Structures are given as C-alpha cells and as structure tokens.
Amino acid sequence: MKSSELGISAMYRILKKAGAERVSDESAEELRGIIEELANKIAKSAVDMALHAGRKTIKAEDIKLASKPFI
Fold first, then answer.
1. Alpha-carbon distance 26 to 30, whole Å?
2. Are 35 and 6 in contact (CB under 8 A)?
3. For position 18, which CATH number holds?
4. Main-chain dihedrals φ then ψ at residue 20, nearest 5 degrees
5. How does pLDDT run across 4-32, given as a tens digit for each residue?
6. Number of structural domains, the chain?
7. Which domain holds residue 35?
8. Are 36 and 55 contacting, i.e. CB atoms less than 8 angstroms apart?
9. DSSP labels for the chain?
10. Is residue 3 in some structural domain?
C-alpha cells in the first residue's frame, strides 16, 4: 500500500459528520484516495496560477480559484 498524506481517522470523522452510522475501512480508504487526488489537482493548478502571476508563494486566492471547477 502506498503512503498517504492524509490520516485515515480524519476520513472516518468526515463520513460520520456526514451522517454515516457505520463506516467500513474500504470506504474510508476510498474517500482518502479521492480527496488526495482532488487535492493534488487543485494544488498543481494553484501552483500554475501563482507562477503565471509571477509569484513563488501560493496564496489562498490561488487555492480558491483552482478549486472552483471541483466544487
């Protein structure tokens, strides 16, 4: 299994807060994988936006703009 940047316990909490009474290990792992994939796409887009603007620093506005297509 590959290493993950996000903790699995956070996935359980997210699913529970969404109303799940019970959460399987597989569903928590799947959610983690999907969230990481989306986060990587958003991060890459935000980096591109900052570089295009001539900055090395990623700002909150870059993340907000980069996440629009996914929300």
1. 6
2. yes
3. 1.10.20.10
4. -70, 130
5. 899 999 999 999 999 999 999 999 999 99
6. 1
7. 8-70
8. no
9. ----SS-HHHHHHHHHHTT-S---HHHHHHHHHHHHHHHHHHHHHHHHHHHHTT-SS--HHHHHHHHGGG-
10. no
